[in-house]
Amino acid sequence: QQLFYMADQIRVGLVVAPVLGVILPVWAVTRRFPLGFRSQLLIARPRFLMTLYVVVATAAVVVIVDFIYGVSQRFLNPPADYVEGLKELKPDGIVPTAATFLGICVLVPLAEEIVFRGLVQRIFSRNMSPVLAMLLAGAFFGVIHLTPQLLLSMIVFGIFLGFLFMATSNLVYPILAHALLNTFSYVQLLILPE
Fold this sequence. Notes:
Largest sheet: none
Shape: globular
Low-confidence stretches: none
Oligomer: single chain
């Protein structure tokens, strides 16, 4: 993703980087395991009632995370390159809008959840208590977002995603929750002025 950002192709990177950098390599490796990609990463068909619970819980957590982010912005000025990156993401046509949505709301959540819950949290869980694994994977998730304004809010959201994964043993629910948060952020990007 950073390579695309440096080449001034941030929107292309949102689509290509998750696929080539995470989804395809993990699929290529895990499909060779006896359980295969879906079973190895604990991806199962979601249940309707649990999906409703996840949507409602995510909506509540998104309000909390957005509040934390707002408070963080009051105390820490966003870096200029971060603000410029957000401005570049604001789409101005059908194709850019669709590509940005696909990247932000579908592919990035899928790739990040494969990494942080499907791999990192599960590896941590093999070596420590599931709760500590959830907390550490959530903290790691927050740290990789690389801006002080996002740190605390993304740690909180990462812990929530880890809890969903720990409680359900199904990667689909954290992917769904992550996609909902990113969709909320995407809508903000579309409707809020610069």
